[in-house]
């Protein structure tokens, strides 16, 4: 626990000032976080980032991450992100032939999904910051409150396993406790955040959904790690694992903030 707290304090001291400042440093940080996440995910399947499919994945991820203010860079090439993704898939499939199926169709599917999973999540991190710092802190507080509530209430009251095949320690009581904590934090935060001006009922519904899907995001990454028989996605953050371990919930929450039209 001591190691987790020290790492969290140091990480927050680096992460939060850059988020607050925004601009080019924030953009570069998001690109770095997404790149490390892609590396961690590919490593689970024993795929190397510094390889032909790894470099294709990385280039496409970077293209996906281009925020709306930089869309003209793609438009000048007369391509859309979807068209570039399709080109990448064709290159992946071509590589299966070039390697005589050492890089398989399953690897193509995994690489493509890895790009979408990470790219969509971090792209909407950029878009959320562009909409206003309040929305970033709202998303962070929802996830942190959910995680903390689920952990402490689960330990104090948890009796019924939530999904033991995926994450043996999570309980139904912790799941519900996380949602309640997220609701309390969101309502208090909305009082002070001018841009969070949704009607109370709408805010409650959206917060509940974000808390639920944040926990699902956590379970999705747990399922991935269990499938590939790894404990953590990486070791960059002592006591916490890798970057993907810390952002798994947020990769679900950031897009949904937009899809639920809170922004």
Automatic annotation (TrEMBL):
It is a multi-pass membrane protein. The chain crosses the membrane at residues 6-34, 46-67, 79-96, 108-126, 132-153, 174-193, 199-220. Its EC number is 2.7.7.41. Keywords: Cell membrane, Lipid biosynthesis, Lipid metabolism, Membrane, Nucleotidyltransferase, Phospholipid biosynthesis, Phospholipid metabolism, Transferase, Transmembrane, Transmembrane helix. GO terms for molecular function: phosphatidate cytidylyltransferase activity. The keyword Secreted does not apply. PROSITE patterns: CDS. This is Phosphatidate cytidylyltransferase. It comes from Bacillus canaveralius.
